[in-house]
Amino acid sequence: MRSFLLFALYLVCCSPLWGQQHFYGVPFIENYSTQTFGGGIQSWGFAQDSREVLYVANNFGLLQYNGSTWEAYPVKNGTKVRSLYIDQADIIYIGCQADFGYFSPNAKGLLEYTSLADSLAGKFRNFDEVWRIYPLNGHIYFFTFKNIFRYTPGKGIQVIAPSQGLEFSFLVNKTLYSQETQKGLSFLKDTSLHPLPGGRFFVGKQVVSILPFEKGNFLIFTNKDGIFHFDGHEAKPFRWKLPPSIPQTPIINQAIMLHDGQIAVGTQDYGLILLTRDGEVPLLISKENGLQDRTVHSLYQDNHQNLWLGLNNGIAQVELSSPFSLLDGKVGLAGTGYAAIQEEGVLYLGTNNGLFSRELSNRFAAFQPVPNSNGQVYHLNKINGHLLMGHHNGAFYLKDGIANALGTAPGTWTFIAHPQERDKIIVGSYSGLSLLESIGERLSVARSFSGFDESSRVLAFDKDGTLWMAHGYKGIFSFRFSASLDSITDIHFYNSRKGFPSDQLINMEQVRNELIFPASAGVFSYQAESDSFVLNTRYSRIFAPNEHIVEMEEDILGNIYFITGSRVGRLSFDSFGKPEIEESVFNKIKDKLNDDLSYIHVVDPHDVLFGAKDGFIHYQADKIKSFLPFHTHLSYVYNTSGETDSLLMAGPNIATQGLTLPYTLNSLRLVYTATYFEDANKTQYSYYLKNFDQGWSDWGHNTEKEYTNLPEGKYEFHLKARNVYGKESLAKPFSFVVAPPFYRSTWAYIIYFITASTVLGIGLFQIDKRYQKERKFILMKQQRELNQKDHLIKDLTDKTEQEIVKLRNEKLQSEIDHMNRELTSSTIHLINKNEVMGSVKTHLEDILKKNERTGFSEELRKIIKSIDHNINSDGDWKQFELHFNHVHGDFTKRLVEAFPQLTPQEIKLSAYLRLNLNTKEIAQLLSISVRGVEISRYRLRKKLNLDRNENLTEFILKF
């Protein structure tokens, strides 16, 4: 109820000023120079395709702007492009000097030009410039100053040849109008022009634009003769209230109807003029206050209601849709904004360069410096009819447009009226507090309050008459004054020991009839019972716990504008007291605000001023910023697998076509953009490659992303953008496939399958073959093993037999050895016997010789004869030979067979040598002397044919 009464009072008292308070300053303007867009100085038309990409008809050809980059597409022979139109299929029709045609994407998506004029007959080929292109009923009309060419896609071109020359042509309410040189305005019906009733009025007046106005009426804009209201029969001058800065009717180049019903007029010498239906001029923008050139050739309002200007030298974007406008050097205001007040039809703005003023009735005039105000201005306030200014040089009051010093000490921060003594004003300065007295029109310094010398910038009285002061680096002070205000009677100091989280960054604001104390973290209120500060639950719930509130200002409707360390916004409460914060629209200005001493001044419920780094920013609160969806899309897709990047796709082809990459080209660079042109450099992007990235990337300003060595598979590249207002846009995902390498492709797998099947078959065959072979081998092995076992058994048997034979042989050998021993023993015995017998014989012979004449001689000779017979008995040899041959394998028989010439004596010698008997022993057996044995050995060697080096005994033993 309170807010309603205040607002009603405001309407009654202040509404006469309302109509003049919009556009305090100049809308945000983005100027694009020829160096920026890479084209010619003049631009003659604008259009947007389905992706909201902007195209410009320029002296150097067709320009394309996607929100991030400009590109130029020249037309053949370098002709100037004068007009353009884009159909629903995004075919870009253009009109040029002596040519017309269209741009369309090629296989890769790059625009290529096709001339339609080249298909004309020779007699129609020679024409001047195509200034207008309009679509109607499935045809595209190209207007020149001589002929009209009607192009029907797929059917060709029909030439419409008027009887006389043409001026400009127009499409209004589905009717084509053209100005004939001698007939005035005509309209096109079928394939001929027909005079418009009342159209002859415009003979000699060059018509530049026709706009619908009310029912069946038009506003017709001429180049030099002004504006006319035309009802279809009669034309009357349209009165528009031009500002004093335009002394005569301006030359008009073009006019268009804006979405809000206002009219934008491009002029030759005065830039852009905004016109209402009742002829008011709420806005004038020219070179002096924002444009880089004063001549506007063409106009276009884009899908987000921003106005594009084709200048004689460059291009400009005017943010008409924005509720913000700038009051800076373009309107004569110098410096950073610190203080503002509107009083008696005059707007005063204080900066670090002084105080400036401008009458609201002359809003197109520049701000003028107030005399004697040069320097830092901190505060403006009107108290008791006195307009006061806090200044670095002290306190001032304004009278008759001049700043007058009050004689205070340097450094006045602020003024505040005493709640009970209205003629008393408390002054906060660099060095403490002082008192001003206002008696009638006289204003004087009463005193400075002693006992307190802290810098006092933020002051406020509470309901009890206590003065509070916030010191940003120390804490909060409270003061009680004496009844006569001649001294401070009580001072209290509060800091972190009294409830605040720290001693610094403590602020004070008075909103909704309440003093609150924003601190470095949280919002606090004073609690008298405990004489301390406690958390204000209401505002602490509204703002983040660590959000520091720098400035707050309330309008008469209860809306609270605020600035914190991280955001700017407006806090309001619904009928149930539920808080609502609008901050997205204020994202536009948060980086432009004064960050030294933040400042907000509410002029009225519809107009709010923010102190900016450069002047002030005006917020038009009753202008709702519409946030239409905007598009985000890929501009180019490059392959980066080679030494240089190669273009794969561009433009609209990316959105309509998929992409399959061979595995050898599995590295991509994706270039993207958002077609949101307000503060395009602040647009941020986030992306996500499905089946590769883990999630969305962080927001950033980069407009391209590169992926290298992507594995084979299907991918979707998702992209979103966030504009300066924090609004997001999603784009249609771009799908592409990285084919597997050949060895992992479908055909490869088919080959692998066939190969595997073949190999498997061969393998199975080989396995079977090997099985059979192994089976055969096993059988053979078994057979071998059996054979081996047989051989083993046989070997065992043989070994056994051999062992048996060996044993038998050993036994035989033993027997032989035994027999040899017996034979040797027998031989030795025989030798001994013969030796004994010989000895006996010798003795007998000796006896016989001695007793030869005795009667025993005969008997002795018989005995000797018997002994000789016994020694030489062949029976002994026979018996010996028998045993010898048995032991030595028929040695004598084999020897005789080998050597038949041997005598019996030599055979015996050989046998005795076989027995390894020595010479003496042999001599005994042979009854010969040792010499005889040597001779016999010699004869035996000769008969055996032995060499001198051969040993006889060894030969006999080996034989």
UniProtKB/TrEMBL annotation:
The UniProt transmembrane annotation reads: 747-767
Endpoints of the signal sequence? 1-19
* Residues of the HTH luxR-type domain: 899-959
Positions in coiled-coil regions: 779-822
Q: Which UniProt keywords apply?
A: Coiled coil, Membrane, Signal, Transmembrane, Transmembrane helix
Q: What is this protein called?
A: Triple tyrosine motif-containing protein
